[in-house]
Specification:
The protein has helices at 8-16, 39-51, 94-107, 143-150, 155-158, 180-207, 235-245, 249-267, 312-329, 338-342, 347-359, 361-364, 426-445, and strands spanning 4-5, 24-32, 58-62, 70-74, 84-88, 117-123, 129-137, 227-234, 278-284, 298-304, 367-371, 380-381, 384-392, 401-408, 411-418. It contains 13 helices and 15 strands. The chain is α+β, with helices and mostly antiparallel strands. Residues 6-252 form the O-acyltransferase WSD1-like N-terminal domain.
Length: 446
């Protein structure tokens, strides 16, 4: 007996995965105050809390009906020790060592026969801090649901004491098979969904590009390797820029990404593309208060990043106007609607169409730029305060860079994930984003 079928978009993410393109989200969190000897305590705390979250004890299995579908089943042989591990790093620059090993660990796909998640506790002697790397398959969680899962891990969100343990909760079984009275309604819904899918599919095709020249900085044959780099931006700086420019803080951050990419390409001697590279900007379709609900609920906006524009303020203006147009039209149009389209396709289409869709990602966009919300409260783990958290997004097939951002503790934390062979200078891109923020702040205050 299973608890539920995979939602259509979850099923798409499950079938999109390959050895070279694992489809897991990640987060690298740094905490203050522990030693390498305390790693066992932190790992034990993580294991106890994770084991108490029902969703983390579920694995994916194929089902007979619907054809091509899959469902979440409780893993009867679940052993949390297979998911929570500890790694001791060498002395020296702890943040640099932790970031390096996190990139290597993000290369490795999650074992599909197990519940699709892993956590690593990273420690080093005399570092004064420790780090936790979390990997969650995209079929298991989108950004909002990942935060909901985190609610069972952090101290403050869960309301537990520093050493508080979670009581393991059972997974309530629920059949996914429809009753006789549901069959007619099910068939009617499928017909309506196919009709909507035709319209959305036409919108996606109109937004697709068939001439892929000019996007070489963001495209690469997959090497299966990953590199991680991080940047920290001042939230007060971002808000100060927004007060002058109008729009939203997210508009400012998208302009920072555009300007950072321009600086990075010019510094590495790469010609600017003839057409502005496209960013896919995910948008949550969850209703307020529904973060704990299962299933990815995403669409996206499509945004041309104005890297050809030399003036930082003009870049920000172009981004703000483009995002205003996107919001006016809604997230059900353009290439971003490919996620909405997934909700209207039958499971068999996902099983056989996912490899084709994955290969076509470059026709739709060049780089993913996503924002992950965090609670505003101060977070801690085992009494150790969280100091920084860098989100990480998966790479689409044929692409070499993904950008993820989150705000915590008065700072914007940027996680850059790249194909390690295609982008060996990823640290310089992180620095370029800091430089671009400073340039926008000067333009706003000058």
């Amino acid at each position: 007996m299973s608890t539920e079928l995979l939602a259509p978009l979850d099923l798409a993410f499950w079938h999109l995965e390959s050895t070279e393109h694992p489809m897991h989200l990640g987060a690298l969190a740094f905490f203050e105050g522990t030693s390498a000897a305390d790693g066992d305590r932190v790992a034990g705390l993580l294991a106890g809390r994770a084991a108490a979250i029902p969703r983390l004890r579920m694995r994916v299995r194929a089902v007979l009906l619907p054809v091509g579908g899959a469902a979440w089943f409780a893993a009867k042989d679940f052993d949390v020790r297979r998911h929570v591990r500890q790694i001791r790093l060498p002395g020296g620059d702890f943040a640099a060592h932790a970031t390096g090993i996190a990139g290597e660990l993000m290369e490795q796909p999650l074992e599909r026969g197990l519940p699709p998640w892993e956590m690593y506790v990273l420690t080093a002697a005399d570092s004064g801090m420790f780090a936790v790397l979390v990997k969650l398959h995209h079929a298991l969680a989108d950004g909002m649901r990942a935060v909901a899962i985190g609610a069972g891990i952090f101290d403050q969100i869960a309301g537990a004491g520093a050493a508080g343990a979670r009581r393991e909760r059972s997974v309530p079984p629920r059949s996914w098979l429809p009753g006789p009275h549901q069959v007619v309604g099910f068939a009617r819904d499928r017909i309506e969904e196919l009709s909507r899918a035709v319209g959305i599919g036409a919108s996606v095709m109109r937004a697709s590009r068939f001439d892929l020249r000019g996007a070489s900085a963001f495209a690469a044959g997959s090497s299966g390797t990953r590199r991680l780099a991080t940047a920290v931006l001042g939230l007060d700086d971002v808000r100060g820029i927004r007060r002058v420019s109008g729009g939203t803080a997210n508009d400012v951050l998208l302009a920072v990404v555009a300007g950072g990419l321009r600086r990075w390409m010019l510094e590495r001697g790469e010609p600017l593309p003839g057409a502005d590279p496209r960013a896919l900007v995910p948008v949550s379709r969850r209703r307020p208060g529904s973060a704990a609900a299962s299933g990815n609920r995403l669409s996206a906006y499509l945004l041309g990043l104005p890297v050809s524009e030399p003036d930082p303020w003009a870049r920000l203006t172009a981004v703000r106007r483009a995002m205003d147009r996107n919001k006016a039209e809604g997230p059900g149009r353009g290439a971003g609607a490919v996620a909405v389209l997934a909700d209207h396709l039958p499971p068999l289409a996902h099983r056989f169409g996912a490899p084709i869709a994955g290969s076509a990602a470059r026709m739709l966009f060049d780089v993913l730029v996503t924002s992950v919300p965090l609670p505003r409260s101060t977070l801690s783990l085992g009494g150790s305060p969280l100091r920084a958290l860098y989100p990480m997004a998966p790479l689409a097939r044929g692409q070499s860079l993904a950008v993820a951002l989150t705000t915590y503790g008065g700072r914007v934390h940027v996680g850059l994930v790249a194909d390690a062979k295609a982008v060996p200078d990823l640290d310089r891109l992180a620095e370029s984003m800091t430089d671009e923020t400073a340039a926008l702040l000067r333009a706003a205050t000058g």
